[in-house]
Amino acid sequence: MISSVVRRPIVKYVTTPNISEFWPLPDHQGVTAQVVIAGRNMTSLMSVWEPHSESPIHSHPHEQIGVSLQGEAVFIIDGTEYLVKKGDVYYVPPNVPHGQRNDGDEPVIFMECFSPVRDDLLQRRFEQKIHD
């Protein structure tokens, strides 16, 4: 474990995200994020996608499960586009190319869990394979 990792303590059962701890998500245009909980086997991330924001198509060795808390966005998973709306839950298998974008005029908020732990996000970095 690298000592510069910003790991939130493992909470007993409940935590409240702190809006002041959001930081720009590297390689994403118009996206801020925060690690909400860093567990023993997974990382939870809350992200805010400003209107017309996007991520590159990328892949990583982590399972990714999330829910849209606000707004709607387009997910591209393994070459297929999916419209994800408030309340929708999505799954991205490990090593599958994916990305997302907010084509709308309102912010989108996601809560995501990754397993195993995303050490790159704990260090406020974005380390995965970017696909052209």
Name its key features.
single chain, 132 residues, mainly beta, Jelly Rolls, six-stranded antiparallel beta sheet
Number of helices: 1
Q: Averaged pLDDT, please? A: 89
Helix content, binned percent: under 10%
Supply the number of structural domains: 1
Instruction: Name the overall outline.
Output: globular
CATH superfamily: Jelly Rolls
* SS content category: mainly beta
CATH architecture assignment: Sandwich
Radius of gyration: 14 Å
Number of strands: 11
Encode the helix/strand succession as letters: EEEEEEEEEEHE
Unreliable stretches (pLDDT < 50, length at least 5) are none
CA-CA gap between termini: 31 Å
The CATH class turns out to be: Mainly Beta
User: Strand portion, in percent?
Assistant: over 45%
Topology summary:
Elements: E1 23-24, E2 29-38, E3 43-54, E4 58-59, E5 63-70, E6 72-77, E7 80-85, E8 89-92, E9 98-101, E10 108-115, H1 119-122, E11 129-130
Report on this structure.
The chain is mainly β and 132 residues long. It has a single domain, classed as Jelly Rolls, CATH 2.60.120. It is 3% helix and 48% strand. It starts with 22 loop residues before the first strand and ends with a strand. The model has no long low-confidence stretch (mean pLDDT 89).
